[in-house]
Design goal:
Blueprint (H helix, E strand, L loop, with lengths): L26 H26 L5 H26 L4 H19 L1 H7 L3 H24 L4 H20 L6 H26 L6 H39 L8 H4 L7 H21 L5 H4 L3 H32 L7 H27 L6 H15 L4 H31 L1
């Protein structure tokens, strides 16, 4: 018997069983996520540079790019949960979406600079039109959901044509207004399609795993961005020394290149506490029950995660900008960068707490997240030195994790008695 994974060229794209046992993310889906995080890393890098230079309009640019990345990822994730037939054509169309993501990533700097980017729009068009091809396959292979599939296909196509036409517009006011209108149109397509033709049969455990895995991958990007920033600092003294006598200022006169300082160590410790706490707070409960609370809660869970993912990526940009502040390579103040770090932490904590409170029907469960948000924002408002601010934010988050551990242990002790 051959050990080869034999994949048919084409098979009928019928629905997967939403109760299928042992359904997990496929290697293709993991590869898909890895490619998409490249686009996220590109957007976060531009946000980092904008924050360091006190060009706070970069926050808006990051938001625009991140919506496009998240929307394309989310649409594919839910589609694959319902219709992953794993034939050659399906894989090739998935590769097309991944290629569009890389093209979008290449155009991110232009979008931040000019507010428009042909590369970004082209990459987004490739991703979305590949989704149209997938939905047309569903329309042919899944007769009961044909209306749903055709509504998706037509809706995505119409909105995509409008995105391309938007390239002809100019002026910040017009661009932002049309962006908002097209975002509303994008969000409306799944709602209309699922109501008009019936809901697609997604797998709750599979979706929960997909969201969790993507959170981990974005956290990995945060760690990579932070380590690269610190590596750059550590490399500066050697680089400065090697340029001695060649018209280059030594590190002490150039505003950077101080190597591993106590401040940098405190910042690294605080950054690790932040990243570890982000992971712990996300996975402190199983998210399957959040999806299985009915259609409304499913929509809320799905769409609210744009804030979760964006907040994690923004934390990475904030930590990298904090390194610039410590090295005196930033125009922005310590207070501004502390807020750039504290705000996404607060958003992350509050969104997750709101989802948990809604699922539990108990608003009291959100109290620790509110306390954490207030604490980190107060730290930012104090205007402390950057290393101390990052460390205190990390300690506040570690305190939230400790509170959860204490509560969990009490519940376990109560259940045992």
């Amino acid at each position: 018997m051959s050990a080869l994974n034999l994949i048919p060229l084409v098979r009928r794209m019928g629905p997967r069983d939403p109760h299928e046992a042992h359904r997990v993310a496929s290697p293709l889906e993991l590869f898909f996520d890895l490619v998409f995080v490249v686009a996220i890393a590109s957007a976060a890098a531009e946000l980092h540079h904008g924050l360091s230079a006190a060009h706070y309009e970069a926050i808006l640019g990051f938001s625009l790019v991140f919506f496009a990345i998240w929307w394309a990822w989310m649409n594919y994730a839910w589609f694959a949960s319902a219709y992953d037939c794993d034939d050659v054509v399906y894989r090739l169309l998935t590769f097309a979406i991944m290629a569009g993501s890389l093209l979008l990533a290449a155009g991110v700097p232009d979008l931040f600079d000019d507010g428009q980017s042909i590369a970004v729009v082209t990459g987004y068009a490739v991703m979305r039109l590949a989704m149209v091809a997938l939905w047309l396959r569903v329309a042919r292979g899944d007769t009961p959901h044909r209306t749903t599939a055709m509504t998706y296909a037509v809706g995505i196509t119409v909105v995509q044509v409008l995105w391309i036409a938007r390239l002809a517009l100019h002026g910040d006011g017009v661009l932002y207004a049309t962006f908002g209108l097209l975002v509303l149109a994008e969000v409306a397509v799944p709602v209309v399609a699922e109501q008009r033709g019936g809901a697609t049969p997604f797998h709750p455990h599979h979706i929960a795993e997909r969201y969790g895995l993507f959170t981990i991958i974005v956290l990995g990007e945060v760690i990579l961005a932070s380590v690269q920033a610190i590596q750059g600092v550590l490399a500066e003294p050697a680089a400065a020394g090697s340029n001695a006598g060649h018209g280059v200022l030594p590190a002490a006169e150039g505003g950077g290149g101080s190597g591993l300082t106590p401040g940098l160590v405190l910042l690294a410790v605080g950054g690790l506490l932040i990243v570890f706490s982000l992971w712990w707070l996300y996975f402190k409960r199983d998210h399957v029950d959040l999806i299985g609370q009915g259609r409304t809660m499913t929509w809320v869970y799905s769409y609210a995660h744009v804030l979760v993912f964006a907040a994690v990526a923004a934390v990475g940009a904030g930590l990298a900008a904090a390194v610039d502040v410590v090295q005196h390579d930033a125009v922005a103040s310590s207070r501004a960068i502390a807020f750039a770090l504290a705000v996404p932490v607060a958003v992350y904590a509050l969104v997750l707490a709101a989802l948990h409170a809604a699922a539990d029907r108990d608003p009291r469960t959100a109290v620790p997240a509110v306390a954490l948000s207030v604490a980190v924002l107060l730290v930012a408002a104090l205007g402390l030195d950057m290393p101390l601010a990052v460390l205190l934010i990390g300690l506040a988050m570690a305190g939230a994790v400790a509170q959860h551990v204490v509560v969990a242990q009490r519940r376990l002790a109560g259940a045992a008695t």
